[in-house]
Design a protein that fits this description.
Elements: H1 2-46, H2 49-53, E1 56-63, E2 70-72, H3 73-85, E3 94-102, E4 108-117, E5 121-131, E6 137-146, H4 153-175
Parallel strand pairs: 1-6
Antiparallel strand pairs: 1-2, 3-4, 4-5, 5-6
Amino acid sequence: MKKLALFGLLLIFFSFPVHGDDQKQLLETHKKINALLDGFHQAAAEGDKGRYLGSFTKEGVFMGTDEWERWPLKPDFSRYVGKHFKDGKGWSYQPVERHVNFSEDRSVAWFDEVTVSEKWGRFRGTGVVLKQKGGEWKIAHYALSFLVPNEVWEKTSDLAKKAMEKAREKTLGKEE
């Protein structure tokens, strides 16, 4: 019985450092992902095209707020960002809240964040980041959504439906 108790204590004792190391690694990984996303937003605010686009994987996709805005990194999003960042100015979205979750093997993480633009208001960014060879993290998918308070949802929805219908009519008019 004493041997079993001693074995149990040793097992518990040697389990804690592993758990502690695991928590340290998780904290370090969180820091790396936060640095990636904070740097992504900072690069946008500074109009730093190279750093901004360099935050994405080669197959990265940016989802904008309009229905048609699905921007593969190359060539579409690179061209769009190049046009808008040409004067060293971009857009500014400051993160005010962020949550990050991981796959079991910690090679994939997904996040959601609330960002604020002085010009446009509050948004939600969601995305997936992938761990690259060498341990660097890159954005594979980023989706930006405009936040709508429930109190004005119906009015906002009506405005959006009217705008979508107008866009469809415009598109149909071009096809004729």
